[in-house]
Recover the amino acids of this structure.
């Protein structure tokens, strides 16, 4: 398994763990109030903003630990360049990511159009963001494994 | 239109050039070793520029490195 494949797998697992742990933690403090109250919007606003911050910090730490363990275990140098194949795989993975999020965004707007509470829309947007993030990692792993 | 299959002689050329390693070829062509591995296995068709760079490393014409299998 190449370095890029291992990195994609680590990203996939860390995405699931970070988002899962954060979601479980935050939903313990979900405001039990009217679904249209400002508290709900405030909850979701802080939910998304903090998730971005937590993800960035956690991913940096996980990447550093992964790099150290990978270097010790394989004695292989981490590629210092991003070549044309890496860029092509990155673009294809990004395309799949955007398609996934686009579907979620449309579903989220449809939920509002069909008179669902804003919470449903936020949950769909969050789910789409999470799935699109997984799609990036799965796509990269697939293209590195099977070729482009 | 039938898809053409691009084959290559990189492994043979590396052997003929003083058993050049994949890492050495990658460094000279300016790509990662994984990309050379993928090209050798036929999992990746390089850009025209990279194909020429690999040919220049071996100092041979492009068609000696890459060739096309005609669709039957």
């Amino acid at each position: 398994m190449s370095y890029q494949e291992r990195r994609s797998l680590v990203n996939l697992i860390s995405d699931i763990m970070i988002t899962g742990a954060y979601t479980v933690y935050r939903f313990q403090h979900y405001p039990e109030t009217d679904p249209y109250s400002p508290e709900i919007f405030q909850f979701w606003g802080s939910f998304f903003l903090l998730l971005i911050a937590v993800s960035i910090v956690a991913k940096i730490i996980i990447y550093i630990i992964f790099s150290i363990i990978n270097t010790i275990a394989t004695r292989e140098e981490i590629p210092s360049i991003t070549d044309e194949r890496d860029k092509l795989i990155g673009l294809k993975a990004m395309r799949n990511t955007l398609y996934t999020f686009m579907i979620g965004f449309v579903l989220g707007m449809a939920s509002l159009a069909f008179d669902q509470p804003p919470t449903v829309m936020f949950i769909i947007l969050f789910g789409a963001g999470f799935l699109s993030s997984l799609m990036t990692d799965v796509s990269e792993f697939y293209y590195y494994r099977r070729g482009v | 239109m039938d898809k053409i299959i691009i084959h290559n002689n990189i492994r043979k050329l590396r052997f003929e050039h003083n058993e050049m390693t994949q890492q050495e070829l990658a460094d000279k062509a300016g790509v990662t070793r994984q990309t050379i591995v993928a090209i050798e296995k036929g999992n990746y068709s390089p850009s025209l520029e990279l194909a020429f760079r690999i040919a220049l490393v071996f100092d041979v014409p492009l068609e000696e490195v890459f060739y096309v299998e005609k669709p039957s």
Notes: The helical segments of chain A are 3-27, 38-74, 84-113, 118-146.
